[in-house]
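User: Hello! My lab partner asked me to get a predicted holo structure for this protein. The small molecule is flavin-adenine dinucleotide, SMILES included with the sequence. Please write out the structure tokens.
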Amino acid sequence: MNDKVQIAKSAEMQLIEDKMIMLVQTGRIDNLIDLLAVISDNIEMTTQPMVEKMVNTVDNLASVGFVTENAVRFAKRETAKNSVPSLFGLLKLMKDEEVRRGLAFMLNLTKGIGKQL
Amino acid sequence: MKKKILIVGGGTAGTMTANNLAKKLMPEIEREEVELVMISDSKNHYYRPGAMYVAFQKAAGHEFVRDQRSLLMPEIDFFVDPAVEINTKANYVKGKSGKLYNYDFLVLATGCEVAAERIPGLVEGGDWFYSYEGAKKIAEKFAKIKNGRVLVTVNFPKTPNIPHQCGIAPVETTMMLHDYLTERGVRENIEIIYTYPTKAQAVENGLFLQSPTSKVLPSVFDSINVKHRTGFTLTKVDPAKKIAYSEEGEEIPFDILMSTPPFKAAKVIRDSGLSKAMDDEGWLPTDKKTLKVIGLKNVYTLGDTVDLPVSKAGGTIHNQTDVVADNIAAELRYGYPTESYDGKVIAVAQMGLSCGMPLWYDYEEDVQPTPCSKLGSFMRLGFNKGLYWAAARGML
Ligand SMILES: Cc1cc2nc3c(=O)[nH]c(=O)nc-3n(C[C@H](O)[C@H](O)[C@H](O)COP(=O)(O)OP(=O)(O)OC[C@H]3O[C@@H](n4cnc5c(N)ncnc54)[C@H](O)[C@@H]3O)c2cc1C
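Assistant: Hello! Below are the structure tokens for the protein in complex with flavin-adenine dinucleotide.
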């Protein structure tokens, strides 16, 4: 019987056994088992709606990151390309539809913030 | 002279590639040496796999639709103008508006569409979840059915060794259906029969288009009491009698026919004369490594419209898009492409309503099926509801 077990055990199994023995002897095994239990409990307690809400938050953050990063890069490029506009030049910028759309967005943004204060 | 890159199609492949090109070519864009233009036939972007969840009333549908402009970096000029003509000799694509879009490099990413009309009676008698309208229609039927039989059928393109859209979807939806009917408390009174055609790419008389998965499926289906049968290639449907007929000479009556219908490439591609696919299916002849349209020096393609043997799936495109973007960037910089696609596909299959199975394969290695898990299903949910949009924007 013993012989049989010896034959079936691979070098890899022996390695795992040695490592496990080390964990038991050094007392680390208790913490590791606790950690595994915590991970398992967390998976057990997490529900689909929870994941969905978390992902939604991540998606919102990613969207804000995308819009902001793009807008900053765009603004940097435009600013570098053109000389500093005069007061009148600033007003002329507002003739551009995309500028007006962006400005309206910023104003609505302040309203959105104001509503929460 | 400014070089112009034109991307046709604002779906998964076109959007990822346009954003990746913008990122990779930013120095050239800053120096005004490169211009990126995208045209699409819709102002909306649809996350297509979302339709599967609509079919089982796990989503309403609107969650999976976004404004295409909001997914594109500002360096990309976007026009809603369906392409109606592709001229690869004069290097232009014509829009429905009449406008000509010239290009130095062209990316064709117009996907594929359901061609249910190719099977007599299927439009009237069958259902499918491969479009949002189709999914809503079948959802109503699934919500009402109390007893009877749901028959699952799968059709492949007539052109050899090309898969239908999203190879794993018939298996996914069969398992989702089992869970959904169980949830509704009617599963015991409803028989589910999963069928598969005699020839499915390299597999004959199997239940899936790759052999390792095909071999484990019988035990998976047995465990949830789904009947399964190979050698059933749907050829005709009698909508009045509700009978499905196979090329092999069998007939199976049904109450609901959940079909994976035939697919074809977009009309503009089929009309372009570029394809040599059978039955006017329109798949573009694609170099499996460079992802160029074979015979054309400056035209690339990826996604559902290619004639490669790999899955027509987002998990494929995610691995193709950087090859296309890098190759175009390399051609602009050094005059030749540098990257090669290895056929890699990475995805998480939805094996039932709350179980996910990560899978990967490439030109050399088939998928090795593994047990699905709750964590896997969370990964999939994360992708459906958030990570997809980040991937489309070229953020991951
Ligand atoms: C129900 C279902 C489930 C799926 N499940 C999965 C899954 O689990 N995992 C996975 O990885 N993949 C899955 N997929 C597949 C995945 O959605 C597709 O592979 C992917 O969307 C293909 O991307 P594409 O860009 O090639 O085509 P599409 O995303 O279809 O985009 C094509 C674009 O071209 C545009 N277009 C068409 N004709 C023209 C024209 N003449 N001019 C201009 N524009 C045009 C369209 O409007 C569209 O924007 C699933 C698909 C479906 C339908």
